[in-house]
From TrEMBL:
InterPro entries (UniProt xref): B12D
Pfam families, per the entry: B12D
Protein name, UniProt field: NADH dehydrogenase [ubiquinone] 1 alpha subcomplex subunit 4
Domain of life of the source: Eukaryota
UniProt source species: Chiloscyllium punctatum
Length: 82
């Protein structure tokens, strides 16, 4: 398949940006999925030692990828401890 892509790119040079951006998009999607799998509080890989890892997160822990208007360091706790 890779040989066919190189052959097509040699005969039609206008396909080179298409192959580049498709590869870039696939790489970005794979990196984002691996980030979600490793660092998301909703994913639990070890059920024996820490079955509910989301309960150990603090109220000022930033779990979103991008927080536009919220500064998580300045948040104050609004509820009781359980």
């Amino acid at each position: 398949m890779f040989r066919l892509m190189i052959k097509q790119a040699k005969t039609h040079p206008s396909l080179i940006p298409l192959f580049f951006f498709i590869g870039l998009g696939a790489t970005g999607a794979g990196l984002y999925l691996s980030r979600l799998a490793m660092f998301s509080p909703d994913v639990c890989w070890d059920r024996k030692n820490n079955p509910e890892p989301w309960n150990k997160l603090g109220y000022n822990h930033q779990y979103k990828f991008i927080a536009v208007n919220t500064d998580y360091k300045q948040l104050k706790k609004n509820g009781p401890d359980f």
